[in-house]
Amino acid sequence: MGGSVMKPPVSRLAPVQWIRQNLFSTWYNTLLTLAVGWLLVTSVVPVFDWLIFGATFSGDGPGDCVGKGACWLFINQRLNFFIYGFYPDAEQWRVDIMFALLALSFVPQFIDRFPGRTWFGLFGLTGLPLCGYILIPGGWFGLEPVDSSKWGGLMLTLVIAYVGIIASLPIGVLLALGRRSEMPIIRGLCIVFIEVWRAVPLITVLFMASVMLPLFLPEGMNFEKLLRALIGITLWQSAYMAEVIRGGLQAIPRGQYEAASALGLGYWRRMGLVILPQALKLVIPGIVNTFIALFKDTTLVLIIGLFDVLGAVQSTVTDPAWQNVATEGYVFVAFCFWVFCFGISRYSQNLERKLDTGHKT
Amino acid sequence: MAEHNSATNAADIPSAAQHDAPDIIQVEGMHKWYGEFHVLRDLNLSVRRGERIVICGPSGSGKSTFIRCINRLEEHQQGKIIVDGVELTDDVRQIDSVRREVGMVFQHFNLFPHLTVLENCCLAPVWVRKVPRKEAEQTAMEYLERVKIPDQAHKYPGQLSGGQQQRVAIARALCMKPKIMLFDEPTSALDPEMIKEVLDVMIELAGSGMTMLCVTHEMGFAKTVADRVIFMDGGEIVEQGPPKAFFSNPREPRTQKFLEQILQH
Ligand SMILES: Nc1ncnc2c1ncn2[C@@H]1O[C@H](COP(=O)(O)OP(=O)(O)OP(=O)(O)O)[C@@H](O)[C@H]1O
Ligand SMILES: [Mg+2]
User: Fold this and answer.
1) Tell me, what's the ipTM?
2) What pTM, to 2 d.p., does this model score?
3) Is B67 in the pocket of ligand 1 (CB under 6 A)?
4) In which broad location class does this protein mainly occur, judging by the first location in its UniProt entry (chain A) (predicted)?
5) Among B106, B110, B158, whose Cβ lies nearest the Cβ of A358?
6) A171 lies in the same domain as A309
7) How many domains does chain A have?
8) Which of A18, A185, A255, A277 could bridge B110 with an S-S bond, Cβ 3.0-4.6 Å?
9) Domain enclosing residue A26, as ranges
């Protein structure tokens, strides 16, 4: 090959050079660097001391937590409760299968070269909820029924968040389309629905679902508390979702609608094939934002007596046998939420990158 | 606007207009308002099968509005529009059946940016005409070859130049095998060197006997391919006639003024 191929200039500096240029270029920069370094050391070292080096990880009971550090032994011993709630031990394999399927659906999404990963993702959106519907409550195919009042912990958190996320997206899409419809009745209904649900705090929705709804329902038509909460959360979340998606619909230029119409595509094809794919792609960050918010809002089910992972932890940190394990408990909860929310966020970035076709019209 | 020399001239493209067959487009006493604003006033037009019509006129005269009424992207409030025997009314099925037979090319291309060139071309044949995907792709490749960009089939519109995008847009419309093609200023968003490549495609299309209605300021194109030139101003058809007569001795003062401006420019 000819020698005329030009490489872009390399702007990376050697580490030593970089340090000298950025951290120690003048006497006051040096001073600042040293001061910040000292602050970091004095604050980070104790944190790690507490988290890891001085922490107790295993043992038989509260008596073994003697070190200055965290008592992870507490989490360790209560892990079963934090993950499954009161779900019977003998049936927990059903939940484990669901965890495995969840991982199977979404872990491949982070590996670019994974063969057929789109199918795994599609399974996650369709097959997975179906499996959950059969496996977790049981009562089918000889599976022992497990009443939803026994569900709890991380598993309950995931059930609520997953149902909320999966169900609110399609409902949100329909509401958003409805709000932009040319038919006044449909538009009016969608506006009322969205504005009413969006204006109500989730706590109120949950209270209404668990306390007030049974008062209005006819005798004998009382369905489970969890189901009521799920419906409430889904509808509430759909209202938010609808507005996010409407933002995307509005950002699509009129020319796209016109080109699709001019080709003879009817309303649903126009929306499904041309407008929505573009609009949804545009608002992925907004959608993910609402998903993450919902994921954390699931903790509110605590107030209607459902024990999600936060509720499960909270109910045990006050156990007199263990002293001062509240911090450990809450750090554990924070970590659980962080893992999933960070996962959702990374996944969405992945998706955005994959869907980028290099042009905005 | 600049006139573009193309390889073809008027003598090479014999009129394909069929005089015996019934008219493919009939517009009778059509009016349209935008709110209080009377955009189109009493338009009457008959287009024969295979006829090629160029519509010109000053900005804001209602040219776009008029051709967009023909596939009901805009609705008219009075009068009749009959396209290939189907009258345009509120009936969605009739509108869709007209749109299947009428292709449209826009000033700003309006390709679907999330689909590749080939997918853009196959979308409507597959979902509207229910053509099997394989067959649709074959047809699409034929048309992409005809507009001379088969090598771009797997790119996204965002990766193409304006001229290439407009040629894809023409191919996309042709893939539906329409009976009529509408063009709304297909070259006015393009750089001069790209205008010619698009006009050449349109001239070739005109030679194939397609019924064409074309809003354009490319007077060279009008002289080369048009059977009839229509001049619109203030929402009315002011004058119409074969290009020779239209350009050499326009009757109406408004036409004369317009032509003076556009030709000396
Ligand atoms: N959606 C609309 N609402 C109100 N008025 C409109 C609308 N669209 C167009 N008009 C007006 O209708 C008139 C005709 O517009 P039209 O786009 O048909 O003109 P045109 O002849 O195509 O002009 P140009 O050469 O600039 O494209 C203009 O005065 C315009 O301002
Ligand atoms: Mg126009």
Assistant:
1) 0.89
2) 0.83
3) no
4) membrane
5) B158
6) yes
7) 2
8) A255
9) 15-53
